[in-house]
Amino acid sequence: MIRSIRWRLVLAAGLAIALALALSGLGLSVLFERHVERVAAADLQARALALVAMVEPGRAAGPALRPPPEDPLYDQPFSGHYWQVMLGDEMRRSRSLWDYTLPTTEAAPAPGQSRVRVLPGPRGEDLLAVEQSLSVGQGARAVPLRILVAEDRSQLALAKQGFLGDFLPYLALLGAALVLASWVQITVGLRPLAQVGARVAGLVSGARPRIGLDLPTEVIPLATQIDRLLDARDEELGRARARAANLAHGFKTPLQALLGDAAQLRGRGEAEIARSIETIATEMRRHVDRELARARIQTQHPPAGAAPGPIAAKLIGVLRRTPKGAELDWRLDAPPGPLARIDSGDLTEAMGALMENAMRHARDSVRVSVGLDTGRVVIAIRDDGPGVPEPHLAALTRRGLSLDPSGEGQGIGLAVVSDIADAAQGELRLLNADPGFLAELRFDALP
User: Fold this and answer.
1) pLDDT digits (tens, 9 = 90+) for 356-381
2) Does the predicted TM-score (pTM) go above 0.70?
3) What 3-state class would DSSP assign to 444?
4) Which helix (H) or strand (E) covers residue 416, if one does?
5) Which pLDDT score, from 0 to 100, does residue 257 have?
6) Where can this protein be found (predicted)?
């Protein structure tokens, strides 16, 4: 089944045009045939009246027939052109009839009248005939004159075939031109849908906030409904983030109190129970911190764009004031370039988590670089630490997984960074740099 609207419309238009042209051709063929028959009948009528000259009315014995005029058309046997004249009981026939007599079983028309008939010919063919009836003389001495002039209908069929042979190529050319015109019309008519598709793609990429109403009248209702759906989605996402944040904040205080109770139990010598409570409470706090971080991720479209270089410089300035950061050699390679398609706050949070991880595991230095790769902004954060065991690389962004030997990590930082990258339609890559560890963030560049 054809799924393209354009091809469906073209197919429907082609079928409609073919049907219309076929009916037109059939109608024109019938009209041409009737026209040819009328012309032929008029010619036969004229020939019938010319044969009246064979009648010699002034004789004392009554009217008689003279010898027929010479006409090669009627002298050749079975030529397809015939005449037959009957004056009273006297009959003359064209030589082309040979020994055949045209049937006259039907009553003759009234004197002075004529009619067109179809008669069988000498070879069984159909003949188009004109029968003319006249009366020679007056009163009781009037003698009926009946003239039949006929020609083979196959000659009319040949004329029709010649007409169709000349007409059909032009009909086909007209059909092709109409199909081409329909294609152009359909393409122009469907162009607004392509415009809507491009704007929807802009919504997906974050290039525009809404479809808008500066569109043709017919597609404005569709654009309006899509924009309303997006408004409703943003409102629902806002409410969902607020609910998640409220729920997470509601859990933080009871969890902190539970950890305090565990510390009291440990002071009373209940170390086993205290360790079990601390393990459960810590895991729950990881869940709460992750949901708080996810609730802060911005999802409005389009983002204003963020400059990774200044953000990295600011983060390095903050981390250098920490005891661990002050011991490291920080290197920043961020030439001026295009903005990344992500909210500035989200990028700050994502880079901050990655740079903090790099600081925690680095031995002597951390390098941050910003560049372009096939239209995407690439932010690379590399430390010279021990790296990560290869079996654990694929699971680094899993919630609650911490490979920090000091036990300071909560196992949610990389998971939150992955969520931020996904929300901005970006990408997070984690790999061993040999030596060290490399984290890359990739986002579309704003034009």
Assistant:
1) 989 988 999 999 999 998 889 999 99
2) no
3) strand
4) helix 413-423
5) 75
6) Membrane
